[in-house]
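Q&A FORM
Asked by: J.P.
Topic: structure of Glycosyltransferase

PROVIDED:
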Amino acid sequence: MKVLWVTNTMFPDLAKDLGLKPPVVGGWMYGLARDLANSGKVKLYVATARDAKLDESREINGITYFLLKGNSPINKYDKTLEPKWKKIIDLVNPDVVHIHGSEYAHGLSLINACPPLKYVISIQGLVSICARYYLAGLGVKDIIWNTTLKDFLKRSTLWHETKEFYERGKKIEVNYLKKVNHIIGRTQWDHDHAKIVNPDCTYHFCNESLRDSFYDSEVWEPKPVSQPPTIFLSQASRPLKGLHKVLEAVHLLKDLHPNIQLRIAGGNIFDAKGLKQRLKMSSYGNYIRKKVKKYDLWNRITFTGPLNEKEMVTEYLNCHMFICPSSIENSPNSLGEAQILGVPVISSFVGGVADMVTHNQTGLLYRFEEVEMLAREIHQILTDPDLVLRLSKQGKEAAMIRHDRKTNLNQLISIYSNCTTK
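REPLIED BY: S.T.
REPLY: Here is the structure written out as tokens.
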């Protein structure tokens, strides 16, 4: 069976072959692609569109890659891609086209160029729904008083970012879901939203596999009392990722846990050490900077910079807990990564998270707005060793089943077979 993947991310093998820096996102796809290519049942092709210098095609480790040079940002429809897709389809003649994610438009140009093909689309997030929660409780004054000159001039204020999510949802995502007959998801949340948009679609359930290092790693262990309490977050660049709520919770715990630390993957969003950094700061970064100053948390926050998967493993293993504080999520892989290592997790009760976390068994859940509940749950993990052991053990057991690579591979191949017959 020949399967063409359409992805939003250039795979590391192709990036390295082209002399480019490998991406640190989308890692869950790479192992699955290798498993498919080695299954003996699928000949895999992987294509994406980027602001590249030239169209490229390479075969590396049994996978054929296509890189298409687009003329528009990937969140805008690019009609120049249509003839390029036709050439690839003529060359590959795929049995199934699997589009990963509904957020960007290059796969939509393929559907419009070659409508008779058998398509299936995987839901990652749903930007049309995430737009509702993008501001994550920030009010009008919060936005106005924290808008930076850069964001004003570039029309990239928080209101512009929210509008961009709405527009992508309306013009791209909804079109995807209406045009395809087969949709892959993994939560009740994405199932219900997909079925509202396209009641006639065939919905296929398939969990995601994680990055290689998370299956090979040592297991998390409870930390000694002498180690400063450490919370790890995997993202914080946008309001919907909820950093501001974690800061409020940490502020409530300063007296109980005077050494508490917060480590955040990614670049420092409120770095203002020089004029250049201040000019680059986003509106949300400015808002966070003021909140950190208000709560006197300067010495409690560390941004790690971009992390590869092995560095992410190290951060998980060294922390006391992982928190997913988002205002909306489908099924965040960061939560699964923490669980499969045995890290105690706390998450806001939003979107599809309830399909990953059973409260007080495989993790702790709280309402996104209720920072007091979040603070209390952080305190529980730091003071209740029996709870920590239970969450660690049962979270890992659940994640090992959910993210079993062989099970997920076989399920995906079965879905492809189903797509070719219906």
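FOLLOW-UP: The longest helix spans residues 158-179.
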